[in-house]
Amino acid sequence: MTTHAAELPVVVIGAGPIGLAAAAHLIERGLDPLVLEAGPAAGSAVREWSHVRLFSTWGEVVDPAAEKLLAPTGWVRPDAATYPTGGDWAEQYLQSLADALAGKVRYNATVTGVAKAGRDRVVDSGRDEQPFTVHVRTADGREERISARAVIDASGTWTTPNPLGGDGLPAIGEKSATDRISYRVPDLRDPAVRARYAGRRTAVVGSGASAFTALAALADLATQEPGTHAVWILRRGIGAGTFGGGEADQLPARGALGLAAKAAVEAGHATAVTGFRVTAIEHDSDRLVLIADDGRRTEPIDEVIVLTGFRPDLSFLSEVRLGLDERLQAPVVLAPLIDPNVHSCGTVYPHGVGELSHPEQGIYLVGMKSYGRAPTFLAMTGYEQTRSIAAALAGDREAAERVELVLPETGVCGGSGLFDQPENAASSSGGCCAAPATLQIGIGAPVSSGGC
């Protein structure tokens, strides 16, 4: 890289928890970050699930470098043993951190493209010596181009939820039924949202923590509003790990969340429909019917909540050379560590610049986006990623390759590769993990559930 390019900022895409942590680590290393946030405030995506409580404590969701940066401002971390909501996290930590970064964060700046200066993805000549160009659109429609020595994409996956269809594409009729479909955990404290689901029959599609959250919330609503019922649509059968790790989970709030979903089913507030992969959705008068690939049909339902995970938006990275796994759309070295087809009882080892590098030098996907379509992630993992990358950009390879993180155990085996197991079949490993298994961030127990 030329001397001129080395003097340019490191552009960080996204002012969420991982993007802001990246900026803090870069500053700690004497590098100049520029954070570009599409929304109007820090943690804009987190604010959209502000009603949901994390299953990680404050002690696990504050980055060490960020805390050092905040210390001179008088910021005091909340009780490390308590569980913040998304709103708490955004208001009490992320916005304070962005404010401490002062002019290093720009809001309402949407990244529309990343490339090498004067080189499309085909051209080899002089490529490594050229800085990156980051194309940005502002809220008023203006376009500009920013030069960068490196790019850290921490834009997450929140804006690109997976569709209802079991084949990864929208189900037939899904797009025409969007007024009855939500891809987010509902905030039942909002009177309008509450009215949408109260006394109604709602299909919840998905098998992860987000689905557990929705099931628990709807079960709570059912105790107050007669006629409220959830139909839980599962692409796999119910097995030993369906409801998570329970009391064996070293993140207790996450374990409690799975138990709350189990209680919802056992209490009759939710009915599980297993091995059901949606191919179509039809209107039945003013209600909806879901149709599976084997021809089964649900009873008429009023609303659908699709919580089938997320996928990365790679459209604005089309002119840089990424090395991505063909299945997960995660970096090729990282993908085997997080592949849910393999890791029915596996370990996501702490990782850094080595696993996150691409053929294009100087560009990194971090945080949720680095996991591609894999469903599991933890904030601590993202903080370790950014620490390693900042060290590498500063030329400290020893620190970049050093592991400084230990992850807690889930206490449960389970992966999407098991979805064809018969109902009530135990996992081949007996339902528990001896090593730290894959972890998920962000969608924890709802505010109304007591254990969180």
Describe this structure in words.
This protein is α/β, with parallel strands linked by helices and 452 residues long. 24% of the residues lie in helices and 16% in strands. It is built from 13 helices and 15 strands. It has helices spanning 3-6, 17-28, 44-47, 58-61, 64-70, 86-100, 191-197, 209-222, 252-266, 335-338, 353-356, 379-393, 397-401, and strands spanning 10-13, 33-36, 105-106, 109-116, 132-138, 143-148, 150-153, 181-182, 201-205, 229-233, 270-273, 278-284, 287-292, 303-306, 363-365. The strands form four sheets. Strands 3-2-1-7-15 form a five-stranded parallel sheet, with helices on one face. Helix 2 (17-28) packs parallel to helix 12 and helix 8 packs across helix 9 (252-266). The radius of gyration is 22 Å and the shape is globular. Mean pLDDT is 86; it is low at 410-452.
What is the element layout, followed by pairings?
Elements: H1 3-6, E1 10-13, H2 17-28, E2 33-36, H3 44-47, H4 58-61, H5 64-70, H6 86-100, E3 105-106, E4 109-116, E5 132-138, E6 143-148, E7 150-153, E8 181-182, H7 191-197, E9 201-205, H8 209-222, E10 229-233, H9 252-266, E11 270-273, E12 278-284, E13 287-292, E14 303-306, H10 335-338, H11 353-356, E15 363-365, H12 379-393, H13 397-401
Parallel strand pairs: 1-2, 1-7, 2-3, 7-15, 8-14, 9-10, 9-14, 10-11
Antiparallel strand pairs: 4-5, 5-6, 12-13
Helix pairs in contact: 2-12, 8-9
